[in-house]
Specification:
422 residues, Phosphorylase Kinase, domain 1, Aminoglycoside 3'-phosphotransferase, Chain: A, domain 2, 2 domains, 16 helices, binds 5-S-methyl-5-thio-alpha-D-ribofuranose, binds magnesium ion, ATP-binding, nucleotide-binding, Kinase-like_dom_sf, EC 2.7.1.100
Length: 422
Amino acid sequence: MSNPYEPLNVDTIGEKLGHLEILKEKVGPDATHWSAQEVGDGNLNLVFIVTGPNGQAIVKQALPYVRLVGDSWPLPLKRAFFEYHALIRQAKNAPEDVPEVYHFDESQALIVMQFMTPHVILRNSLRDGIKHDNLAEVMGKFCARTLFRGSDLSMDTKERKKDLALFADNIELCDITENLVFTDPYFDAEMNRHTSPQLDGIVASLRADIDMKVAAQHFKAKFCNNAETLLHGDLHTGSIMVTESDTVVIDPEFATYGPFGFDIGMLLGNFYMAFFAQDGHEASKGVRDDYAQWILDVTCDIWHHFEEEFSHLWRTERTGILYDKRLYEDQGQNLASEQALTDRLNQIWSDALGFGGIEMHRRILGLAHIMELDSIEDADLRAACEARALQFGRQIVISRDAYKSPHQIAELARAVRKDNFL
Ligand code: SR1
Ligand code: MG
């Protein structure tokens, strides 16, 4: 029988987990020589770094409520189960890009995993103006590999249906996304917050904007109804850890089957927000033109690597339910296969812009904001950056089919950065 759930603290980790062989190996054989530090800065969970004579490990434990809000918002512990299952699938589909899982305990809702060091959360770099060489390549390929290999393009019917059923139970975390991302920003929802009064006018016009409301619900329907592939589900720049030369993706507890464009759209939307936040950090950290341009280059390179890797997998690993090779290559119709690929990539690109723009809105108008913008202390300056991001977000959602490449979007971003919407 498993023990009843109990949240850990820095003083109980050794006593509760000291028997685990993997922690004895990674941290040290005697738990009385371990120390623990709670470092969770996300919205939901406890995260401990456990240190001992042999090294370090991460212990991540779900709390029975939303940490950001408190116990007035209960949240099932089972999210640790989905995070564990997503992590092991990502490790298979995109090896090297996620921390290694050492141990999972379902009854304690905890995952013991590799401590990534000297990595930092990418948002810190985006605030501080630090560049990372391999970031775009890793993220483009990570998206292509996890999304392609987690879909009907790669999986057979049995595996696919079983997995869809498993992740279909991640109900409460999907519910958070459905409401916080697609609905709350577009009305005066209770938990919303924005820079006020500076943004009040622009927020009112966005909420009265019929085209935007229709588009947001169009993308909500896509998120809810199009179970195309296994998503990370929360692929923002706070879910990425970096060093100068390494990039890893963490925190897939929102994993669910959804549309191809969702993860990559959320990711791009977060980079575009970081781009617009740069002007807010110039006073304290110096001119950011070069860095802002680097962020846009990263968005272009992410899409380039995504497209290249997705195309490669399409040509070499298309063994699943969809686009059966017997209909294409085996008939000598490689061109038809290439046409189908282009069609899919165009759809993913258009959807990514939709999801990306909506992500930008919810991070400025909803409950969960981003550090790069929130850390701009001067409220007028912050609001000016946020207003640009809101307008840009609307533009890429509404006119998504007019923009054929990330370079055109980068051009739009540079133009919007020069504008003042307040
Ligand atoms: C109540 S949870 C708020 C947000 O934090 C997570 O990281 C997800 O992005 C979620 O939408
Ligand atoms: Mg997270």
